[in-house]
Specification:
This protein is an alpha/beta fold. The chain is 38% helix and 15% strand. α2 packs antiparallel against α10 and α11 packs parallel to α14.
């Protein structure tokens, strides 16, 4: 169910049919892809860190500043009303994009990191008690580890970690074995930002729900590559960042089931999240306002709405089909490079490939690729535990999006072969 209203019972809308991608036309929508780096055409293979922005998003943000710029919820003048309408339309688009029942289930945050910190901080006040257990996986980003460490230290809860196998796939039997009557929170990544492992989040959520756990999904890498329907997943919360979804930086969202939001206290205080304030006491607004203290990132929010419109115009199913085929093609070429070792070979992979090259430091590989105009990420990827699982401190990580091409994958492979010959 992808329709959204302000009520709890939205009308059902038909799913858009996938369309074939005209990748050359799509590439023209992204002005930064026309530039050169070191005299070479830019090949952007770092979308897992941040995705590039289509002109439609850039134009929408500019139009907001040129014509609608005002604070929201604080004025009755025309610009304030227009800015408020633009922000709430963006909230409606996010809700529909995730399959939420209501736009009121969407809380705007700065990104996935802030969203996970919000949940961990509130749970440490209202949910977790000494001896309770928080279940994570070995494949988590630091943003889905450190906030839970804060919560565990504050409450006396215990973190337990579900392992992955040598391919990078979750060991479901081990995960299920960790779950029990003391499991209060399960917080898991949708797609690993290091291995590209697509977690079986529906099954993992169902297993956690048997024990009454609250389930949080880190969707930072999920929403750019997979259609998300939070009703089908069955999770309580789903968190993502706009800048990985072809939207501006500084905006993200937390979907939460309304009955959960209604039970939760605020985590920050300030304007907009209150109803009555005296020096003795304050009363708080209903969700989502209760969790959005202060001035929101209005221009990035409307940019996020524009990015979702752009993606829907292309077709989410078509994007997934194209990216899957492109990733398979790139993997075939990368496997042929002598002296290169792939890290993780999950059953279902989304977006990213990690590798190391024998005798060549990862940073050196990335620097040489940059000289060819090829942007990749090298380092820990803010996920040191999963790298340690494979005996590594860093990897090289090209990451792909629907604006990448087979020709760019070929140029990456050719450059890697030349690097390999230098050993």
């Amino acid at each position: 169910m992808n329709a959204v209203s302000q009520s709890a019972s939205p009308p059902i809308e038909s799913m858009p049919k996938p369309a074939m991608l005209d990748v050359e036309s799509i590439r023209r929508d992204f002005p930064i892809l026309q530039r050169k780096v070191h005299g070479k055409p830019l090949i952007w293979l770092d979308s897992a860190a941040t995705a590039q922005k289509p002109q439609a998003v850039i134009d929408r943000v500019s139009r907001f500043y040129e014509h609608e710029n005002s604070n929201v919820h604080r004025g009755t003048h025309t610009l304030a009303e227009e800015a408020c309408d633009a922000c709430e339309r963006a909230r409606t688009r996010v809700a529909a994009f995730l399959g939420a029942f209501s736009m009121l289930e969407i809380v705007f945050v700065r990104g996935t990191t802030e969203g996970l910190n919000l949940l961990a901080a509130i749970f440490s006040e209202s949910l977790l008690r000494p001896g309770d257990e928080i279940v994570l996986t070995a494949a988590e980003h630091h943003a889905n580890i450190v906030p839970w460490q804060f919560a565990a230290k504050k409450t006396g809860a215990v973190i337990r970690v579900a392992p992955v196998d040598d391919n990078g796939d979750i060991i479901l039997e081990e995960y299920e074995h960790l779950l029990g009557p003391r499991t209060r929170v399960v917080s898991i990544t949708h797609i690993s930002n290091v291995l590209g492992t697509v977690m079986p989040i529906r099954e993992m959520t169902a297993l956690a729900k048997r024990h009454g756990a609250t389930v949080v999904i880190d969707g930072a890498q999920g929403v750019p590559h997979r259609r998300v329907d939070v009703q089908e997943i069955g999770c309580d919360f789903y968190v993502f960042s706009g800048h990985k979804l072809f939207a501006p930086m500084g905006i993200g969202a937390v979907y939460g089931r309304m009955e959960m939001w209604e039970q939760m206290p605020p985590w920050q205080g300030g304007g907009n999240m209150v109803e009555q304030v005296t020096f003795e006491n304050s009363t708080f607004a209903p969700p989502p306002k209760r969790f959005e203290a202060g001035t929101p990132a209005l221009a990035p929010a409307v940019g996020l709405g524009a990015a979702i419109d752009y993606l829907n115009g292309i077709g989410l199913d078509a994007i997934e089909q194209y990216e899957t085929a492109l990733l398979d093609y790139a993997l075939e070429g990368i496997r042929s490079v002598n002296g290169l070792r792939l890290i993780g070979q999950p059953r279902d992979r989304g977006g990213v490939i990690s590798f190391v090259m024998d005798g060549i430091p990862d940073m050196e590989v990335a620097r040489v690729l940059d000289a060819e105009g090829i942007a990749v990420r090298a380092g820990t990827h803010c996920a040191q535990p999963i790298l340690a699982r494979f005996g590594l401190e860093s990897t090289v990580r090209p990451s792909f999006a629907f604006y990448n091409t087979r020709a760019e994958a070929d140029m990456l492979v050719d450059a890697l072969r030349r690097i390999g010959c230098r050993r």
